[in-house]
């Protein structure tokens, strides 16, 4: 458009008037930058925003996104230690990977799968609970008989039911409030998907048999208000047409009624980087790693934040009789803003790594969906084992016997990913934002020689009077709720509803989240 206008004006006015025209061009309608789209304004309202990805990094200098691994002490919180959790010879058995956790009414509630020996036809779902999330009890519920007694904690008797993924359905009547879906193996029949419902998470009845084609491992469902439908995440076998081999992926489906599912879409598939990380075994033709499952959940502490604990299965060495090695599973972290487009973070390094040789978590680790909040921490429960997934299912030789159990990993609140700066000062500017509230809080670690200052910019990227860098009080603390203060006026009421940007100036600091909030100043 600009070239057309210049040509027309040059012909009409002649060359000698061009200089005058160019001086006035900023005011001439035909050369207003109509072709340049205004940047989209992100409406953050008064909801917490976490730094999962580059959404809030419109421009940046000497900062980076960092994934944070949770702390683990190696303690086993739940292990097989009851007679009905043992094989007929009295040896403890492996807890099923497909287990889950919820925090409700002051209790941490765990549903876990349990067999009675390798390849046993008996696989059940059991229940444990805790007031502090560390010391668990296994209540004798008196529901299902084993070895002539109902004094056990079994809630779904099987005979072969592949674990659980319990969730609360906000659209269901009270009698069907709790639901779980799993692959079952009825005697003499093909495996199938069953969904059970319950009023309390203890007493279960068959609810539906959804038809979704092939399914396997842990199947995740939740209601998603942004699309007004249920979302279903399950493992799927993708076929490599060139090699006539199959490999594991994660797909998403949608439903209005939990029975009919549609809009199938793969959301986690081995890409070129996965295929090339190790030489592929000629025996399998599969990628060196694929995805045994994907524990997707909505992070309720923040706005539009979805995460996937991606269970990565490694099998790239030819182990002869044992099949393919190392035959281990660890956990990567993937993030999304819409529960559809996921991106792995942390350079694809493990979010939950395998434990050292000889420990119970040296071969398998499987993160349960839905971390629970305990104070200012997130507790991520996981199932682990020292038995690999090779053809002969080898046990870690340093352990001497099979070990498995449920453990706990601890992460800072909102602490999956942060924007970091080192000793070299860094800064970044957000895209245009619109907020509600009168104060700004950060989840930030700037202690020990660090600092963070925040300035507010107008639509032209100019500092707003009273809220510039020089007026900002440096933050040099570590807090999940740190107020941002300016010298003249910490109250942001006059800016609420306006389009602004934030520019963060950081040194030796990690920034996890921000939130504009409405605070009653009369109480302070």
Task: Briefly summarize what is shown.
The protein contains three helices and 33 strands.
Structure notes:
This protein has helices spanning 2-13, 18-24, 272-276, and strands spanning 42-45, 49-50, 59-61, 64-67, 71-72, 100-104, 107-115, 123-130, 154-156, 167-168, 178-184, 192-198, 205-208, 220-224, 229-240, 245-255, 262-268, 289-298, 306-318, 324-336, 343-344, 364-367, 372-374, 377-385, 404-412, 417-421, 426-429, 433-435, 439-445, 451-457, 478-483, 499-507, 509-517. It has 524 residues and is mainly beta. The chain folds into three domains: 1-36, no CATH class; 37-68 and 418-523, Galactose-binding domain-like (Jelly Rolls, Sandwich); 71-414, Tachylectin-2, Chain A (5 Propeller), CATH 2.115.10. Strands 1, 3, 27, 28, 30 and 32 form a six-stranded mixed sheet that branches. Strands 2, 4, 26, 29, 31 and 33 form a six-stranded antiparallel sheet that branches. Strands 5, 22, 23, 24 and 25 form a five-stranded antiparallel sheet that branches. It is globular. It starts with a helix and ends in a 7-residue tail after the last strand.
Question: Descriptors for this entry?
Answer:
Glyco_hydro_beta-prop_sf, 5% helix, 524 residues, 40% strand, six-stranded mixed β-sheet, disordered N terminus, Glycosyl hydrolase family 32 N-terminal domain-containing protein, Jelly Rolls
């Amino acid at each position: 458009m600009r070239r057309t206008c210049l040509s027309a004006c040059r012909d009409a006015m002649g060359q000698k008037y061009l200089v005058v025209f160019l001086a006035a061009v900023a005011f001439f309608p035909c050369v207003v930058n109509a072709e340049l789209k205004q940047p989209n304004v992100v409406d953050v309202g008064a909801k917490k925003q976490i730094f999962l990805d580059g959404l809030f990094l419109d421009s940046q200098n000497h900062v980076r996104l960092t994934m944070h691994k949770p702390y683990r002490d190696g303690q086993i919180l739940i292990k097989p230690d009851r007679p009905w959790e043992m094989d007929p010879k009295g040896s403890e058995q492996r807890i099923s990977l497909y287990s889950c956790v919820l925090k409700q009414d002051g209790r941490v509630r765990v549903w876990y799968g349990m067999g009675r020996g390798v390849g046993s036809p008996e696989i059940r779902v059991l229940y444990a609970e805790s007031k502090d999330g560390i010391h668990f009890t296994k209540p004798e519920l008196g529901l299902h008989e084993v070895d002539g007694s109902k004094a056990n904690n079994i809630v779904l008797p099987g005979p072969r039911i592949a674990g659980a993924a319990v969730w609360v359905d906000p659209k269901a009547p009270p009698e069907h409030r709790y639901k779980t879906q799993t692959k079952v193996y009825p005697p003499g029949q093909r495996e199938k998907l069953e969904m059970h419902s319950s009023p309390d998470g203890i007493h279960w009845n068959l609810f539906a048999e959804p038809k979704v084609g092939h399914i396997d491992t842990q199947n995740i469902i939740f209601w998603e208000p942004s699309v007004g439908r249920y979302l279903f995440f399950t493992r799927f076998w993708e076929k490599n047409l060139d090699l006539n081999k199959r490999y594991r992926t994660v797909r998403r489906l949608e439903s209005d009624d939990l029975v009919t599912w549609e809009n199938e879409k793969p959301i986690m598939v081995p890409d070129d980087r996965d295929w090339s990380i190790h030489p592929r075994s000629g025996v399998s033709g599969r990628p060196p790693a694929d995805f045994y499952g994907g524990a997707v959940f909505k992070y309720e502490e923040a706005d539009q934040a979805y995460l996937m604990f991606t269970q990565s299965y490694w099998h790239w060495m030819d182990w002869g009789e044992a099949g393919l090695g190392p035959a281990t599973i660890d956990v990567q972290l993937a993030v999304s803003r819409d529960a559809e487009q996921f991106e792995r973070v942390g350079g694809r390094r493990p979010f939950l790594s395998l434990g050292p040789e000889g420990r119970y978590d040296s071969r398998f680790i499987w993160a349960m969906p839905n971390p629970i909040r305990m104070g200012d921490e997130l507790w991520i429960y996981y199932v682990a084992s020292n038995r690999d997934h090779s053809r002969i299912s080898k046990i870690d030789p340093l352990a001497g016997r099979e070990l498995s159990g449920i453990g706990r990993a601890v992460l800072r609140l909102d602490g999956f990913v942060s924007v970091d700066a080192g000793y070299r000062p860094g800064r970044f500017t957000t895209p245009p934002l619109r907020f509600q509230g009168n104060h700004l809080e950060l989840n930030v670690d700037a202690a020990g020689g660090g600092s963070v200052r925040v300035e507010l910019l107008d639509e032209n990227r100019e500092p707003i009077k009273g809220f510039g860098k020089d007026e900002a009080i440096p933050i040099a603390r570590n807090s999940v709720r740190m107020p941002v203060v300016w010298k003249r006026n910490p109250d942001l009421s006059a800016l609420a509803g306006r389009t602004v940007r934030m520019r963060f100036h950081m040194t030796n600091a990690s920034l996890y989240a921000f939130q504009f909030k409405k605070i009653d100043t009369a109480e302070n």
